[in-house]
Structure formats: C-alpha cells, structure tokens
Amino acid sequence: MTTPMTPMRTLWYMGAKTRLCEEFIDGAVRDLVSPGATILDACAGTAAVGRWFAGDYRIFANDAQMFSSEIARAHLEVTHEWSQELDLLEPESDLATAREANLALLEKEYANALNLEEQLLKRILSGNGKDEEALSEYREFCSASPVPFQKCSVSSGEGESGSMEDPFQSIRGRLTELLNQRRSDRTLTPAMMCTAYWGQVYFGLRQSIVIDSIRHAIDNIPMESRFCKEKKSLYLAALLHAVSVSTSGTSHFAQPRSVDKDSELLAVVKRRSIDIEEQFELALDAIRREVLERPRLSGNKVFCSDVLQLLCEESPLTGESVDLVYLDPPYTSDNYSRFYHVLETLALYDYPELQCRGDELTKGRYPVRENRFSSEFCSGSRVEGAFRTVAEGCVRIGAKLLISYSGDTGLLTRKWQREGHDQPAARLREVMLEYFSSVEVREQQLMHSGQGDTNKPVQELLLLCEV
Ligand SMILES: C[S@@+](CC[C@H](N)C(=O)[O-])C[C@H]1O[C@@H](n2cnc3c(N)ncnc32)[C@H](O)[C@@H]1O
Fold first, then answer.
1. How far apart, in whole angstroms, are the C-alpha atoms of residue 35 and residue 53?
2. pLDDT tens by residue, 296-335
3. Which of 40, 77, 112, 407 has its CA at a distance of 20 to 30 angstroms from the CA of residue 260?
4. 127 and 198 co-located in one domain
5. Quick one: 95 and 244 in the same domain?
6. Ligand 1: does its nearest atom lie under 6 Å from the Cβ of 344?
7. Residue 277: inside a domain, yes or no?
8. So what's the pLDDT on residue 359?
9. Would the pLDDT of 452 be above 60?
10. What is the DSSP secondary structure assignment for residue 55, as one 8-state letter?
11. Among 336, 341, 387, 451, which is best to mutate for testing ligand 1, by the most ligand atoms less than 8 A from CB?
C-alpha cells in the first residue's frame, strides 16, 4: 500500500472533500473495500477523492460537468507509457507557437485597452488603492468594455466612456460579427471567447487574452501526434486550475465582484495582476508531480454523465465491475453548472448563447439555461428519488455504496426536518435500508466554508451501505 498524501487542490470548489479524505473518508472506504478493488467516484468534482485512493485502488470517476471529467482524466487515466512521457514532457514545444500567434493577434486587436489596463493596474497597486483618480479611471475603463452580442447588450453605459477616449474603439463595432463567425467555425483565429465574454468581468483583459491563447494552443495540438488526447486533458486541467485560482470574482462564477467600493476594487485589481501563464505552469507541475509520485493502477476510466443514467442498465458502465460507489452529490439547490459555468464553457469553448434578463445579459454572463446541467440532487421534489435511483443502481451492479451528505444543511435532510423528522440522518439510513441490509452512519462536525455561512459548524455524514 502506498501512503496517501493530501492531493493538490485543483480548483476552488464548493464541497471539495480534500480536507475530509484523510480524517474521515479514508477509514470508511478501507472498511468497505480492500486495496485493488474498483471505486467509482460518481460525482467527482475536483476528483479529490478518486485521487486520494488512486495509489491503491482502481478508480472510475464521473461527473456531469465536462470540466470535472477533464480534470479527473488528467489525474487518473495515466498509463505506464504516458507517465514515462510525462516525465519528459516539454509543454512549450506543444503549445508555444499557436499560443504566441493567437496572443499577437489579440494584442493587436486590443492594443489601446491593454496599454491602459497595464498603466491603471500599476497605478492602483503602487498607491495601494489610495489613488482616487486611478480608481475612478479604472471604473470607467471597466464600464467601457464592450458587452458581447449587441441585440441584448445595451447595458450600463457601454461605449459612453465619459472623459476617457474609447480604448475599445477598434473592436467595438466588429465584436458581434467576430463572435458570430466563431460560433459557426470555432477554429477561427484569434480565439477570443474568454476575452469577449468575461474580460473585465471575471478576469482582466491581459489575463483573458492569455487564457484564450493557451486554450487555442491546446485545441491545436495535432490529432495525429503521440499522446494527443492525454496532453489535451493535462493542459486543459492545468488551465482550469489557473483560471479557478485567478478569478477576480470570489471563489466561484455565480456573480462577478462589484467594483463600487474602493476596497473591492483593490481586491479585484490584485487578482487581475495574477500571471495566468505562471499559474498554468505551477498547476502543470503539480499534476505531473502528483501523478508521478503515486503511479496509478491500470484500468482507471473517466465518464462524463448524469450518475442516474450511468447506473442504469444501458450505460457506458455496462460490463464493468465496480466494488464501491462513492456518492458525493450537491448538498443544496445550487446547481454547480451555474456556479462554475465559466469552467464548463472554457472546457467546451463553443461561444455559447448567453442568457438575458429582459434585453440585457445577466451580470454573471451565464450560458442559456437549456445548456446548463440541472441536477436532480438540487431539486427539492426530486432529490429523494435521486438517492433511491443510485441505491437501486448499486444493488443491481453488486456494488457497495458510500454516501457523503450533510445531516443538517442538505436539501433533503432540511426538507425532512421541515416535515417533522427530528433525526434526518436516521431517516436517510432508513431509506437506504430499503435497498441494503446494513447501513452504518458516521458523523463529523465540520466548520463550514461555503457562501455566507463561514464558521458555522455543520454535520457531515457518511453512510456505509452494504448488501
Ligand atoms: C459536492 S460536489 C463533489 C465534490 C467532490 N467530491 C470533490 O471532492 O471535489 C458535487 C459534484 O456533483 C456533480 N453532480 C451534480 N449532479 C450530478 C449528477 N446527477 N450526476 C453526476 N454528477 C453530478 C457536480 O457537477 C459536482 O461536481
């Protein structure tokens, strides 16, 4: 048995189990299945749990979100041949040419705005947020940023840049046409989705053009080159990490941070000064190190599916043998597809149609709702059914089930509390006992670090279900 280590934190992610692997989940898994067995991390998120066990167990990982499965793939689908190549990998030889070409085109398109951004970021940082004039110029600069897609754009003062000469003049009138062309042909250069959709919203302008350029370079690794698929997953996982830790929003993408208050603006400017390429390289090194230090067992696989479908009779899992399903679903009605839409859209890179409220784009710049995954675990009326479907599926494939859930703040446990059950954890156990002959509940008090509830203890549950 190799000694597990705390895996790198791949993303800023709500509900990531990085902290809980060692102190809580490890013991439960080892009580249920012996090393060498196959574990399906069914709602993998950052893949923290699958990665924790990957030295001793064969891991299948799944998530409904494509960005999560790409991260899992980079960390888990590592054959012996690929790990040998990883040791020698030279990312610059794979990426530099296409990245620099895209960067040069975008630098030309946005030349004035990039110059202005560089000056303003410097002035604000060197004055530590006290240079009033620089702060107000930066606000003006942010609101001058062109909003993509004219038909629903005309938002707060676009194009009315007050005393400032329009730094986006050269691109403003052509932006919608450029984006429409790219919707029909995603290979057109310069790749510019991040810059157009999220520049000055979740990232600075320089950051956005670097993100677009690295993403474009990843897509341009020739299909026929050796380890093309593995390289694309690895580089994309590293880029997702870089983007996640560099956003000028909070730790997620449900809303951009407002720059109305000086202190908020300074915080945004600090984040917009983060070097994306440096974060990308750091993430790349961390993934390589983790994977090389703990060689993976053969046969790991990653799926990108609704777990309710994955556990159905006809699914990509058919014919595979799974010993333990680890289920860590969303705990609340907040769909991950809304909180992390930027990561999903960056993974898809498809210039999606954006949601409007009335005639204006939403502040969060979400893709239209139909294109975002909606989880049954986030629906009050369907969440119990979702747990039951997973239990049924596990019994059908002969797998044990380990569930992570919240005893007091979960959508289902709160619903039961409201309905008069004073012990919702016991109620969840009863439901599982309809499918399994033995269900053990373990509890841990945890300090919550989610939105708004910081420092409130919550009850973290594990249910160990065996036939
Ligand atoms: C609590 S997070 C999992 C965190 C993960 N254990 C970690 O340590 O990073 C829940 C995950 O479930 C995924 N998800 C939600 N509903 C799903 C479904 N029906 N099928 C598959 N994945 C789902 C979300 O995309 C999210 O990544």
1. 9
2. 999 999 999 999 999 999 999 999 999 999 999 999 999 9
3. 112
4. yes
5. yes
6. no
7. yes
8. 86
9. no
10. T
11. 336
